[in-house]
Amino acid sequence: MSYDMYMLALAALGVVVLFFFFLDLIWSILQLSRALLAPFFIPNEETSLVKKYGQWALVTGSTDGVGRAYAFELAERGINVVLVSRNEEKLRNTAGEIERQCSVKTKIIVADFSHGSKAVEKVKEECGKLPIDILVNNVGKQYEYPMYLGEVPEKELADIITINVGAVTLMTRAFIDDMKERGRGAIVNVSSGSELQPLPLMTVYGATKAYIKSFTAALRYEYANAGITIQHLSPMFINTKMNAFSNRLQMSSTLVPDAKSYARYAVSTLGKMDESTGYWSHGIQYFFASIPPVWIRMYIGGQMNKTLRQDYFTEKGIKSK
After folding, report:
1. Family per UniProt (predicted)?
2. What mean pLDDT, rounded, does the chain reach?
């Protein structure tokens, strides 16, 4: 290849790279605009989830935090709810509250997703012929506080992988063909902003959330013609007990909403946004967090987790490690 041809090829490659860079930038700006404007429109739209998807939803991890709030929000919109969690007492209390406040039917299933396929088989069996029209894969587990890999108990690591990766995969497989046969349905996979980059001191947790993002995108492609809405939610920080290792994450604010505020908005995006953080201010945070190169994001994430780790030690009166 002559020098001129070589330079021409490099120039052409540069044009292609710039084209896709600006295309991605424009798309990101559109997503940011949508995140800014959506709060003024989405919550006020009167659409019937029952009419679009059906009468029954199943929510995993539904007795605390986002899962509980999401189940209540669905019930307030007339959806009957199957509540799945490992604590029977909490399940009964949550089911009772939903039935009293929302006048819908509930069903409870006690299942511990750290048991893997056995838990999924139990859920499927107890659902029987009940049509699960909306599946919310919310159950998740993270570290007790930010830790170096060698500090995390082996059993805890195994549980994080089994719950965060195994449950979303096997639960989806258990119900997706029924939805395909009916020609409608929705699957909501709840991930985390931790998926944005490798996350030091939450190494395995962050990796499992990146899996959910990849899994959901590929699944949406596979079932594009099946009439199924497949949504990926990637929230930033929410004021729930999962983040109880730091007091600064236990104060609700515009940037750190409580579970109820988050769920109200997140449910409103169902059927409208396949990829969403689920909350307007999280959309803005996600956009700006995506701008730096991955290595910078990873460094910032690592420094942030070191700060949160210190918060935990201070609160517990533990000497820094």
Report:
1. Belongs to the short-chain dehydrogenases/reductases (SDR) family. 17-beta-HSD 3 subfamily.
2. 87
Distance CA 34, CA 115 (A): 40
For the segment 55-77, what is each residue's pLDDT rounded down to a tens digit? 999 999 999 999 999 999 999 99
Catalytic residue numbers read 205
Please give the helix or strand (H or E) that residue 106 lies within, else none: strand 106-110
**Residue 143 buriedness (CB in 10 A; 0-12 / 13-18 / 19+):** buried
DSSP 199: -
Q: For residue 126, which of 166, 175, 172, 68 has the smallest C-alpha distance?
A: 175
Residue 17 has pLDDT above 70, yes or no: no
Q: Which residues of 103-124 are buried (b: 16+ CB within 10 A; e: fewer)?
A: ebbbbbbbbebbbbeebbebbb
CATH homologous superfamily of 49-316 equals NAD(P)-binding Rossmann-like Domain (3.40.50.720)
DSSP 83: E
In terms of Cα–Cα distance, which of 103, 122, 152 is closest to 60? 122
C-alpha 319/C-alpha 321 separation (Å) is 6
For residues 29 and 307, what is the distance between their CA atoms, to the nearest angstrom?
31
71-83 burial: b if 16+ Cβ within 10 Å, else e = bbbbbbbebbbbb
Q: How sure is the predictor about 223, in pLDDT bands with cuts at 50, 70 and 90?
A: very high
Is residue 67 within 8 Å of 145, Cβ to Cβ? no
Q: pTM for the full model?
A: 0.84
Using the predicted structure, report yes or no on whether residue 46 has a pLDDT greater than 50.
Answer: no
Residue 189, beta-bridge partner list: 137, 232
Q: Which residues contact residue 255 at a Cβ distance below 8 angstroms, ignoring those fewer than 6 apart?
A: 236, 237, 281, 285
Q: How far is residue 262's CA from residue 176's CA, in Å, rounded to a whole number?
A: 26
Average pLDDT over residues 273-301: 88
Cα–Cα distance list, 286 to 80, 231, 240, 281, 297 (Å): 32, 17, 19, 9, 11
Q: Which of the 8 DSSP states describes residue 210? A: H
Of 93, 92, 105, whose CA–CA distance to 58 is shortest? 105
